[in-house]
Design goal:
heterotrimer; A mainly alpha; B mainly alpha; C mainly alpha; A: mainly alpha; 2 strands; globular; B: mainly alpha; two-stranded antiparallel sheet; two-stranded antiparallel ribbon
Chain lengths: ~500, ~350, ~120
């Protein structure tokens, strides 16, 4: 009577199990809650996220540090719980927590305050956790599909709104298509190497390509198709077409969640596959990355210049940020990525989580009974209606533009640093140029908030959940910007880079 | 092992015999139904054509052959013609894996009394049954008439809903037999309890599964009490409103072929297939084909008996029954079977 | 053994030839006198009202999707059932967890009214 999964496997995946239990719980109790108490589902979801985070710390991080191990595998080498995975798990849980806080009043106004919204958020976080911790392409794919399908439903959650339906349909069709192409690429890698484990794939590819000048053509095709799927998920040009429509049509709190957590999960998947799995093919994929990142930065920044819809504008800005992050992966030579570049990507994702969620929180709070609150005109004169929120929004916008001493600066700083150190001067200057473009459209919003007259001069009521979300995001943005040392240390820890010196040598 | 040529020749012979027997059985199933339903309703049924009306199916066949087959201009021709053919092909295909008896040696050739013994026989049958929904759905859609479309949709929704319970009810049998192969499932039902009760699955704990299977099968084959899709008083003739003569005969044949398949499967899975009763004279216990045919006949008779007796369900009652009663019951059955088998082992 | 599937193909091929031949034979033998009334779509003797391909309720789509979900569940249960004894108690507990998740979903759709009329 063979036993393939042991008890330690299950206790390693305790955060995932807890989230699933909370999500199932929400589904069941939602059926018996009266309409005016539906916020209880949000409380359950929030508690679930906190409990799961506690489980990550107590059950995974502390034992790992105590035993001095860099990582632990689970489920017959399908899951690799290393510091990288733990870092991303905390990131997903943070994003989910803020998104849940943002959604409560928004859903009530939209009359769609069903419990399954929160259950789906928790299920999609489960999928994301599988993507970040998976070292077996089957587990990564399952996590990807779980996250994606939950997100498709969440994007279309406003059943009576045409834009939401359209957004969900576009996202679903393009997402399903790209998942198919992605799976095809992964299956080709399985065929080439005979294993679904990324570490084994890397070893066998390295062995096969050891003496050869050019890569195996099938490996190149497999890389192209896999990369297509990955680029779709992070919404890089030319695979970005779904993003503006999906972001615009989705419920705004969902847009925040998508742009932050889903993107972080897609990045975790991309880094796992490209660095842990396909490192021997780096000479092949670096030119591809250069092309895609330039296209992304160009396309997104230029498109964002003319937008009047806030959600679309932030969608294009998201895509632009992805362009900068891709440069972090380009940095390094033809055979290994530069540690600073990857560090830059991870820090970028951390600060991006908070500042983007903060910006979307402010836009979500604009939604009133009669006003949809998506357009630039709706945010005009926000300073006179809700001064604190306007100032917080200014902080988020400046951080997005990369102005020190706010958090966004450090994201860009490490990436540009890694580019310069690896002598990609042209790319670095292009990136800086496009960052200036970014400043224009972020300041356009700030201009509307402070300099224009409000169309509707009433005070803007902000609910408790929304205020909590806003202050958490603003606090994080300010703290990371002013005192980044502990966060940089956390990123170093997650990548296994040894600690070097105090804050003064911020360069390392 | 047989050489490849002998194997193919033997298979072709078995196929031809099986087809011949099957088609005759379908025709005489119609005769049986008319007779039995007639007697239930206190009338004679067919008596004029041949003794006891035994040549009635022949007369019906000639009628279908010679009748005018209108192909209305408003139908979508390719699917309109393909639908009845699909229905019949899928209905007849299941017989290919049903075992009638054990391995025999005829003329030096050692072969099973089964067209082929695939090791996933049950899956093949379930798959082919699922394909059977296509015939109905396409017929309804391609006929381009309101009655046909609605009838086709309702029929397919009904068949599809009961297919879930059908699949789930078979899991108890699979747990006990440990194989998909129908031959091995029958072999697992050998032996007796206390010397005289045969160890058929019906007596070995699968009685609830048996009834779920039977009810789901009645719904799959669109027979009373689930025959709303072809109820004459409701939707004219449902999905085969626009069909006449031979194509209509094909749907007719498909329905009776499905009935026979269900009866064969029920006897193989729950009633021990070709295994006889353990008491009685020894020569009687050794006639596999006889016992198999007897059990199939019993099931067909029950089918027809139910048709003559019960009224028909309304559509929402039908769907509620399938989704809200049979499905949880099937899941409960499989959980309890699994627990009991696990505890016993 | 893959050669066991060949007789099934022979069987299907034989039927696949027999049926169209029958239909063809019927076509040669029967009379063919269409006129306008005979060819109209049947609507209890009156002239047809409205298009045939109108709209119909969305409940059919819901049934189809629920069927897919539960059928996939059944498919996952089949290999477990066949290898029940080899998988032992551990397999039983795992499949019970699987079933519990699906039953939560089932309760959810029941209470949400997706099974009404259906």
């Amino acid at each position: 009577m063979a036993q393939y999964f042991t008890l330690s496997d299950y206790s390693m995946s305790l955060p995932i199990i807890l989230l699933t239990l909370f999500a199932l719980d929400i589904l069941l109790i939602d059926l018996w809650i009266p309409i005016d108490r539906k916020w209880f589902n949000a409380v359950t979801a929030f508690v679930g996220v906190l409990v799961s985070a506690a489980a990550v710390y107590l059950r995974i991080q502390r034992p790992l540090d105590a035993a001095g191990l860099p990582a632990q595998t689970a489920f017959m080498n399908a899951m690799l719980l290393d510091h990288f995975a733990i870092y991303f798990w905390y990131l997903f849980l943070a994003g989910a927590a803020i998104a849940i806080l943002m959604s409560v009043r928004y859903l009530e106004i939209e009359h769609e305050h069903h419990g399954e919204f929160y259950a789906l958020i928790l299920f999609s976080v489960v999928g994301m956790m599988c993507m970040a911790a998976g070292i077996d392409i089957v587990l990564i794919f399952i996590g990807l599909e779980l996250m994606a399908i939950s997100t498709y439903v969440l994007v279309g959650f406003l059943r009576t709104d045409r834009r939401s339906n359209e957004a969900a349909l576009k996202y679903l069709l393009l997402g399903a298509f790209s998942s198919g192409i992605f799976a095809y690429g992964l299956s080709l890698f399985y065929g080439l190497t005979g294993s679904t484990n990324l570490v084994v794939i890397q070893n066998r590819l390295a062995r096969e390509m050891a003496g050869q000048a050019h890569a195996n053509p099938i490996a190149v095709i497999a890389l192209l198709t896999t990369a297509t799927g990955l680029f779709f998920k992070i919404a890089a040009v030319p695979f970005h077409q779904w993003a503006p429509d999906a972001y615009e049509g989705a419920p705004t709190s969902m847009t925040g969640f998508m742009s932050v957590a889903v993107k972080a999960a897609a990045w975790a998947m991309l880094l796992r596959i490209l660095i842990w799995g396909l490192a021997p093919l780096r000479p092949v994929y670096v030119p591809l990355l250069v092309f895609v990142s330039i296209a992304t930065m160009t396309g997104a920044n230029l498109a964002a210049l003319t937008q009047n819809n806030l959600k679309r504008l932030l969608a294009y800005s998201s895509i632009a940020h992805v362009g900068y992050m891709l440069l972090g992966l380009v940095a390094g030579d033809a055979h290994s990525p530069m540690a600073d570049g990857i560090k830059g990507i991870l820090i970028y994702l951390l600060v991006y989580t908070f500042m983007n969620l903060g910006a979307f929180a402010v836009i979500t709070s604009l939604r009133q009974r009669e006003v949809i609150g998506d357009e630039l005109d709706d945010i005009a004169g926000l300073y006179s209606r809700a001064p604190t929120e306007a100032v917080l929004m200014l902080i988020f916008l400046l951080s997005l533009a990369g102005i020190p001493p706010l958090a966004g600066f450090y994201g860009k700083y490490f990436i540009f640093l890694s580019l310069i150190e690896s002598k990609h001067y042209v790319l670095a200057s292009l990136a800086v140029l496009y960052a200036v473009f970014g400043l224009y459209y972020y300041m356009k919003i700030a201009n509307a908030m402070f300099m224009r007259e409000a169309l509707d001069k009433t005070r803007l009521p902000i609910s408790l959940g929304m205020r909590t979300a806003l202050w958490i995001s603003a606090f994080a943005t300010l703290v990371i910007g002013i005192y980044p040392e502990p966060f940089i240390r956390a990123v170093n820890w997650s990548l296994g880079i040894a600690q070097v010196g105090p804050v003064a040598s911020l360069v390392r | 092992m047989l050489s490849i040529e002998t194997y193919i020749i033997v298979s072709v012979i078995k196929t031809v015999i099986a087809l011949f027997v099957l088609l005759t059985a379908v025709a005489y199933c119609v005769w049986l139904e008319r007779k039995v339903v007639g007697h239930i309703q206190n009338r004679w049924g067919p008596t004029r054509v041949g003794p006891f009306g035994l040549l009635q199916p022949l007369a019906d066949g000639m009628k279908f052959l010679f009748k005018e087959d209108l192909t209305p201009p408003h139908v979508y021709k390719p699917l309109y013609i393909a639908a009845p053919m699909l229905a019949v092909v899928f209905a007849l295909t299941s017989i290919a894996v049903i075992p009638i008896g054990n391995w025999v040696t005829i003329g030096g050739v050692h072969t099973p009394l089964q067209i082929t013994d695939v090791n996933i026989g049950l899956l093949v049958i379930l798959g082919v049954t699922s394909l059977g929904v296509y015939g109905v759905a396409l017929a309804g859609w391609s006929s381009n008439s309101k009655y046909s479309l609605l009838g086709g949709l309702r029929a397919s929704a009904q068949m599809v809903s009961y297919e879930v319970s059908l699949g789930l009810s078979l899991i108890g049998v699979l747990i006990m037999a440990g194989s998909f192969s129908l031959r091995e499932i029958v072999d697992a039902q050998g032996g007796t309890f206390w010397g005289f009760i045969p160890r058929w699955n019906l007596f070995h704990g699968q009685i609830v599964a048996f009834f779920i299977y039977l009810m789901a099968a009645y719904a799959e084959t669109n027979r009373v009490p689930f025959d709303l899709p072809e109820a004459e008083t409701e939707l004219v003739a449902g999905y085969h409103t626009e069909y006449s003569a031979m194509k209509f005969a094909m749907f007719f044949m498909a329905e009776y072929a499905n009935m026979i398949t269900v009866a064969c499967l029920a006897s193989v899975l729950f009633l021990g297939g070709w295994k006889g009763l353990p008491f009685g004279p020894a020569w009687l216990q050794d006639l596999p084909v006889f016992w198999f045919v007897l059990k199939v006949f019993v099931f067909l008779f029950i089918y027809i008996w139910v048709r003559g007796t019960l009224p028909r369900f309304r559509y929402d009652q039908l769907m509620a029954f399938g989704w809200k009663f049979l499905l949880p019951l099937a899941i409960a059955n499989l959980v309890i079977t699994a627990l009991i088998v696990a505890v016993r082992a | 053994m893959p050669q066991n599937y060949v007789p099934i193909f022979i069987f299907v091929a034989l039927i696949g030839v027999l049926i169209p031949v029958t239909l063809l034979a019927a076509k040669l033998v029967r009379p063919d006198n269409p006129n306008k009334t005979k060819l109209m779509p049947y609507e209890c003797g009156i002239d047809p009202v409205d298009h045939a391909r109108g709209r119909y309720t969305v409940r059919f789509y819901i049934v189809a999707i629920l069927f897919v979900v539960f059928d996939v569940e059944t498919i996952f249960l089949f290999p477990w059932a066949v290898k029940f004894k080899a998988l032992g108690v551990f397999g039983l507990i795992e499949i019970l967890i699987f079933l519990v998740i699906l039953i939560v979903g089932y309760i959810w759709i029941w209470k949400k009214g997706a099974l009404e009329w259906v």
